[in-house]
Amino acid sequence: MAAGSGGDDDHALPDAAGSGSGAVSVFDPSIKNVVVEIDYETGKEPYTGPIIGFGDTFDPTQANIDRLFAGKKTLTIPRTLAAMQDVGTIADEEITVADILALAAQHRNVHTTETSRSYYVIFVSGYFADDSGVHGGVLGLSIGDQIAMFKDVVNSTNIVLAPNVVRYVEQSTLIHELAHSVGLTDNGVPMVTPHKDAAHGAHCDNKDCVMFWQNDGSSDAAQFAQQQLLTGSSILFDAHCLADVDAKSGGL
Fold first, then answer.
1. Distance from C-alpha of 6 to C-alpha of 30, rounded to nearest angstrom
2. Does residue 28 lie within any of the structural domains?
3. What gap in Å lies between CA 191 and CA 171, rounded to an integer?
4. How far apart are CA 9 and CA 203, in angstroms?
5. Using N-to-C axis directions, what is the helix angle for 164-182 and 59-68, rounded to 10°?
């Protein structure tokens, strides 16, 4: 995660859930299944359903996360609200790392096993906050295998005359945060060739890659989403990020 073009540093926080310090790597052949669990605060549910002319809203996340594993895992990502959980109202509007961990501890139902790796996502209102203050441009935050999506910030990217953009912003942010959890960029998955933007944490240095730091901030994410809509690109990772994960999976 990074805030918008104001220069906020990455807040993706690694742990053993991604690619390994102490746990079996998600890329290990023994991990057959990858499961994404999605919860949401009442009224802050993710966009779902068809995008006119583009397929289902969750198609980008399904395609891109499947590509990270070179299609070698059984990937389960809920696409309908019926497959997600409404956790009720969350009173706090300044959401800290501790708050996210507490929400996960309270509501998470799917956990990692010997043959499966799970990732927990919760959509909340409000804004990310840390010791330096409130970060109004932060769309999402990855903490190991736990992810918060800040729905109010996502909604701020809505363009009246281009209603698909906000859906693509939300999807590209979810892809970005899940990729952090999996281990990009140099966040547990080693780089094949140097392409980490050292000034902005676990991000790719290619502005056309979904892992570029500004593509996780509200204003630049909208521009990135429009670019993808115009080009019809389905895989949002660049060649360097794909080379990193292919070195772990064996590739396509």
1. 42
2. no
3. 25
4. 10
5. 20
> What's the CATH code of the domain at 139?
3.40.390.10
Short-list 174, 156, 158, CA closest to 216: 174
Residue type, 235: I
Q: What is the pLDDT of residue 14?
A: 52
Answer yes or no: is 131 within a domain. Answer: yes
From CA 179, how far away is CA 182, in angstroms rounded?
Answer: 5
Which residue type is seen at 219?
Answer: S
Q: Is residue 20 part of a domain?
A: no
pLDDT in tens, 61-84: 999 999 999 999 999 999 999 999
Residue 154 falls inside a structural domain = yes
User: What are 227-247's pLDDT values in tens digits?
Assistant: 886 677 799 999 999 999 999
> Each residue of 159-188: pLDDT tens digit?
898 888 899 999 999 999 999 999 999 999
Q: Which two tokens stand for residue 51?
A: 């995008």
The count of domains in the chain is 1
Query: Which residue segment(s) compose the domain that 166 sits in?
Result: 33-249
End-to-end CA distance of the chain: 27
Choice among 51-60, 82-91, 214-223 with the minimum mean pLDDT: 214-223
DSSP E strands in 77-235: the ranges are 85-86, 94-95, 116-124, 127-130, 133-135, 140-143, 146-150
pLDDT in tens, 1-58: 532 323 344 456 554 344 433 478 999 999 999 999 999 999 999 999 998 777 899 9
Where are the extended beta strands (E) located within 23-82?
33-40, 50-51, 55-56, 74-76
